[in-house]
Amino acid sequence: MEETCYINSPLGVAKIIGDVNGINSVSILNSNEKISNNIPEVLEDCVLQLNEYFNGDRKQFSLKLNPIGTAFQQRVWKTLQTIPYGKTISYLELSKQLGDIKAIRAVANANGNNPLWIIIPCHRVIGSDGSLTGYAGGTNRKQWLLEHESPYKQQRLF
Questions:
Q1: Which of 16, 59, 122, 127 lies 20 to 30 Å from 136, alpha-carbon distance?
Q2: C-alpha span between 103 and 6 (Å, rounded)
Q3: What share of residues in the chain are helix, strand, coil (percent, to 5)?
């Protein structure tokens, strides 16, 4: 049976869905959903690891994942998981790693349909020119995540 919970994150309310087969979805909401008082047992480890990530204590997730997608999307999502914490690659580089430079639009589309926000680090993929490009959670959140993971902490001037 699929379980759902809502937790606070520095970027808004995160919705987590999963069952005994793994975590299906982690998404950030643009609404003020009520935070869950009780976390279902099958989601407890995910909540713990996300909180550790946001506190700066976790750089890699070790969760049982069960994202729903096509075989191609699954390949892209698996490749995304190889991008190290604090590093970025371009959509072009990601396409090359998948063995088809001409599939860049399909790769970008699969990246945009990633159902496991942060855990499958689609935020680490940027434009070839270094631009943040699109991000389902908004480019402001993408920038926050990349700064959070950066080994070089920049102080804000304003």
A1: 59
A2: 35
A3: 35, 20, 45
- The pLDDT of residue 153 is 65
77 to 28, 111, 131, 156: CA distances (angstroms): 18, 7, 21, 33
58 closest CA partner among 134, 102, 107, 121:
121
pLDDT band at 47 (very low <50, low <70, confident <90, very high): very high
Element (H, E) at 19: strand 12-19
Note the residue count of the chain: 158
- Each residue's pLDDT tens digit, 87-141: 999 999 999 999 988 999 999 999 999 999 999 999 999 998 888 887 777 889 9
Rounded alpha-carbon distances, angstroms, from residue 41 to 2, 9, 21: 11, 19, 13
Contact 3, 45 (CB under 8 A): no
Does residue 99 come out as left (phi exceeding 0), alpha (psi in the -120 to 50 range) or beta? left
Nearest one of 11, 82, 2, 14 to 48, comparing CA atoms: 14
122 is catalytic: yes
Q: Which of 122, 125, 126, 145 is catalytic?
A: 122
